[in-house]
Design goal:
The protein contains six helices and seven strands. The chain is an alpha/beta fold. The protein is globular and about 50 Å long. The mean pLDDT is 96. The structure holds pyridoxal-5'-phosphate.
């Protein structure tokens, strides 16, 4: 039974790697939902005194761990405003980067506004300023194409139980090995 379970898990890793363009199937850490994956990524990548850029479109599952890190780890956060159409100004975002900006967290598609954020362009800013890009794909995974290599995503948090039509209580975080 253990061997059978390992096979099922490996098949899931392979399928997810195909769907999201993940190079190494072992770069996927399973958990119980997107919230857990986001907490793992945020708390696992930030150090005392780091600066983070996120957007005003973020779900509570991003805002809460970020604010927790602000309170307990002295992490500084800037939130990029979102306009009435749910879009962000990339130039405004770029002006927020600092020498200690370690992480940029961005929802791919907002559950509140339905807008889709320009992950490819945000990734270019992250490369330029040497920051890690974490994308919350709770609403987009399985619904629209998400290729971590093409979009330049370092960490992707996604649920199994939404657009991927997987079992309840499943989610995962991917990590590009060169990212941290
Ligand atoms: C944008 C966004 N992020 C995160 C979450 C949290 O997802 P989960 O229920 O998988 O923890 C949701 C839930 O609807 C969401 O819409």
């Amino acid at each position: 039974m253990a061997v059978q379970a390992s096979r099922v898990l490996f098949e899931a890793r392979k399928s997810l790697s195909d769907i999201f363009g993940i190079k190494n199937a072992n770069d996927i850490a399973f958990g119980s939902n997107t919230t857990e994956a986001l907490n793992l990524a945020i708390q696992g990548s930030l150090r005392e005194g780091d600066h983070v850029i996120a957007t005003m479109a973020e779900h509570n599952s991003v805002r809460r761990p970020l604010e927790y890190m602000r309170r307990l780890r002295n992490v500084e956060i800037d939130y990029v405003p979102v306009n009435a159409a749910g879009a962000i100004d990339l130039m405004q975002m770029e002006r927020m980067f600092r020498s200690n900006t370690r992480l940029v967290v961005c929802t791919h598609s907002s559950n509140l506004l339905g807008s889709i954020l320009p992950i490819g362009e945000i990734s270019l800013l992250c490369r330029k300023h040497q920051a890690i890009l974490l994308v919350d794909a709770a609403q987009s995974a399985g619904v629209m194409p998400v290729n971590v290599q093409q979009l330049g995503i370092d960490m992707l948090a996604f649920p199994g139980h939404k657009g991927l039509l997987g079992p309840q209580g499943t989610g995962a975080c991917t990590l590009r090995q060169s990212s941290i």
